[in-house]
Structure formats: C-alpha cells, structure tokens
Give the backbone structure.
Amino acid sequence: MRFPEGCAILFATGVGALLAQGPTAATLPTGQLLSEPGPTFRIADGELQTPLTLIAYGDQRFTDPSNTKQTDPRIRQWLVGQIAKEHPAAVIMNGDVPLAGDNAKDYEVFQAETEAWRDLHLSVFPTLGNHEFHGDPQEDLENWWNAFPDLRNRRWYSAQLGSRVYLLALDSDASLEPESDQARWMEKQIDALPASVDFVIVSLHHPPVADVQQHIEVDHNPRPNEIALRDYLSKNAPRIHARFLVSAGHIHNYERAEVEGVIYLVSGGGGAPPYFVERTSQDLYRSILFPNYHYVKLTLEKDRLHAEMYRVADPEAKILTVELKDSFDLTVKPR
C-alpha cells in the first residue's frame, strides 16, 4: 500500500492513572499539532481487497505476558492471531493499546505480538486511550510517536480507505468541546467529506454513548467531553450524505446503541479485565453472556456496511474459538 509522503502505516520497531500533579494529557497544548485539511492518509480503491473488510476493537493492554492480572495475555495474543486470519485491510484500535504508556517495553510487546499483522501488511490505525497517558504526558506521547512514527505531531488524524469509507481517529484525552482545536478540525473534516464517501467511522477511546451504570464502574460512564461529540453528531449527521459509526472502548465489554441515526459501539474486549455491564433499554445488544472478549468485523457491500461481533465462546477452553453474537447494517443514504 502507498501513502502520501512516504507514509507506511503504522508500524515501527522499537519501543492508568494520570499524574496527581503537573500537566495532564488534557492540558497539553494542541494548537501546534498538525491538522491539515483532507485525509491524513489515503489508500486508493485499487490497493484494497474486495470486499473491503475492517476490524475494530480496543483495550488490549499489551504488556509483559507474565502479567495476568491487568490483562489476559492468552486471550490478547489469540485475538491478534484470529484477526490475522480474517485478513482485513485495516485494524482500528480503540485505545489502551499498551498497559502503561510510560513503559516503552509495552510497545515492544505490541510489536512482537502483532508480527503476524505486519507480515500480512495490514494497516493499523490506533487511537490514544487513558492508558497511553500513564506518566509524564509529553514523554508518553514520545513513546506513542516512536511506536507509530507516521503519527508524529498528531494526536488525531483521518484516513480515506478507498472512495467510500472515511476514518476519523480522535483523542478523547484532549478536548472535544465546541471550539476546541480537535472539534474545529473534525468539523472541517466532515464538511469537506468527498461526495463518494458513504460511511464515516469515528474511533476514540472514551465512549460518547454507553449504558449508564448505577452501581459498578460508574466512573466509566460517558463524560461531558464525549457527550459533546454525541451532541455534535446528533445535530449534524442527518445533513451529511454519509452514515456514521462510532467505535469506542474504555468499557471492557460490548454494547451497541443508535442515537439520531448514528450507531455507537463499545468494543473494549481486546484482553483487559472484563467489566460487567448493567444493560439499559437503549442497548441493542441484549445477551447476558459474560465475559465478552471480542472484535467487530466491518464489511463494505454495495448498499451497506455490514457489521459482525465475534465473541470468544469460552475463554477457559483449551482450544479457543469465536462465535457470531451480534450483527447489524448501516445502509447507504439515498442520493
């Protein structure tokens, strides 16, 4: 695959909690970051398989495989291999790629464990999560940019995948409030979408829409920062010629909702410790099965984007397998 200016998404060899005091990811200046118009990366139709398939999932927490408390290395590694077998054109990672962004060795584990993706020349589009910011935020960003050098000086970016699919990879550790640097960039991206684009995938870590919890993991409920994104999409998506799918993580489970025609996924089943979810009436996924280690496969068809959630059937089984547990379609808007 060829990318502008010699980009080769997005692998390189090499290489929580925020600081109680001092700068945080949210307070780092962002005005100087690159935010050029148009897609940051572009892959032509002729360089993509037919049908185009993508995988989205999050919360892998790559780290030393001896750490079995803060992530499940067996599940994490097996899912990487299973995704390789799907042979998607790209893997969209919804944040918390490493366990600790201040530990460069976690990125080395990521590189080692995803070698199969590299061998298959899969494009990888990661987004920043809270675990990417685990120490000094500027040093954490340096580790991130060393691991993904084509993203240097960017905390958010876009990619056009053929003529019909557009990816907006956002940073929910930075402001998404109206008039913020990131929100203005996103609005310009959406206003300038090519007429050929049928589907926009928005990837970020913290979910704009999720089952609001009353008893457990209440600190993972949607925050004002991401609710601002939801409100923007609710107001503006109906006027856009493309359909929107938002894929987030942070909650280590699977959820699906639709708000004003926008599909919102929580896909945080990449290996981090599972979170039980009290499902609300807005959640279109009704299964009571737990845990939900999984990935989401997106397939572009003539008149729709077809989505399938594949869940690890039994995480304790000697031989792991996946089962199809959810599916849905986004149909092309009439022109």
Q: What stands out?
A: The helical segments are 73-86, 104-113, 115-119, 137-147, 181-191, 224-236. The chain has six helices and 13 strands. The first helix runs from residue 73 to 86. The domain at 4-13+31-331 is CATH 3.60.21.10 (Purple Acid Phosphatase; chain A, domain 2).
